[in-house]
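Our preliminary data section would be incomplete without showing what the modeling component actually yields. Below, a chain of 124 amino acids is followed by its predicted structure, encoded as tokens that our downstream tools consume directly.
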Amino acid sequence: MSTIAYIFVALVAAEHLVILYIEMFAWETAGKKVFKTLPPELFKPTRSMAANQGLYNGFLAAGLLWSLFISDPVWQQHIALFFLGCVIVAGSYGAISASKKIFFIQALPAVLGFLFVYLSRYYR
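Predicted structure:
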């Protein structure tokens, strides 16, 4: 993968690690600052649901980070594209179902990463 592709994959992975942290470990503190559209009284009763969502974000981050350490360039690209595609789908669904802001925060960086990873096969 090209350097810019590596950077975007790493950035999307880092973003999902931050989301994991907020949703799994700081839902009632940092979560209130990040997810301002939720009424404050909902954070305590939704803690376990948020932790579950955080776990999924962790799986996305793990897959993206894994792709950075694969030595075979074709396999590396396929794994990165798969996990970036998962982020694009999740971010697009979130934009449709919850807030359009999610597209720009979550899906757009993954779309750019997807393009850079895909195009890196032609510019090695």
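The mean pLDDT is 94. Helices lie at 3-25, 30-34, 47-68, 73-97, 101-119. Preliminary results of this kind motivate Aim 1 of the renewal.
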